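Q: Fold this one first, please.
A: Sequence and structure below.
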Amino acid sequence: MLFNTSPEKFWNLIAKKYAADPIADRQAYEIKIDKLKTWMKSEMTVLDIGCATGTQCGDIADSVHKVTGIDISSKLLAIAQQRIDERDIRNVEFIETSAFDEQFEPGSFDVVMTFHVLHFFENLDVIVKRIHDLLKPGGVFISETGCLADRSKFLVNTLKIMGAAGLLPRITMLKDQQLQESLQQNGFTIVDRTKYSQQPDNEFTYVAIKS
């Protein structure tokens, strides 16, 4: 099975294992969510691209009007829906689709979130431009993603080999500097860049405003 051409099959295959993995640094996560909520208001609508099991969707739902979580994996979304139902959260919906779905019109959202997702897009500028288009004027983009090119050459080479063999979904080796430049060149102003956990594989969380 070639996951680099059918990434949804990969995520469906590992959905249960992914859902069972605990948050590595719970205290740092809770601090991050509380900080991100300060950028949200009760009348806002939020889009979470690549929402997986919907953890962030549920955790910010009490601060906004509506959250839409999207993902390409039907099995991850089934878990997300079950968890939202268990928490009796009524203002979150999940849709099996991508960020480029034409049902999402320009200026549809006050906030767009992407957690550990941008490195799965082949062209960073294309997805950043799409997110900019989806946001209302002054909208907020919250992003945390794997900047794998900043890590060891051994890891990078291993991931490249596995990706080329189709054992993983396609991964783009991003650098943190590259992400900053893409945001700035595609109409965003970076207003916060914070690393909430000191664990070695933790990434910066960005908050950027649509200029």
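Q: Good. Now the second chain.
A: Here it is, same layout.
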Amino acid sequence: MRSRNGNRPFILTHLALIATLSFGADNYYIGYRFTAKNTQAINEKLSISKAMQPCSQAISSPILILKRSSGESLQSLLEREESAFVEFAAAQELRVKNNESFSLQHSEIQNSLILPTRCYAVEFNNESVTIAATK
């Protein structure tokens, strides 16, 4: 069945994408941590490593599609599109850690935003990368 503009229905495209991700995707462990002290950024780390064994193939429903240049690595892509990935991953799981210390002379507040390391199915295409969290 085709819609008026000649494209296949939207749902079939998503089902095909999920099927592709569940069979042909590479698995990567990705984690992120951002720390600020007294509202000034002091540390930011994005860690990426390829999974040695396949992760669970059960794909969570949200997916992230990012445009990439040919031959661009996942590391450089996620560094360039960091805010989009952090928003996507924060919808899955986000932890916030807060440390406060006060004295008569000064106060110190340190906050950390942590996306725990988890497995993602990553499908590389010619002009894009599709990322989906596995369960």
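Q: Anything worth noting on the second one?
A: Residues 10-24 form the longest helix (15 residues).
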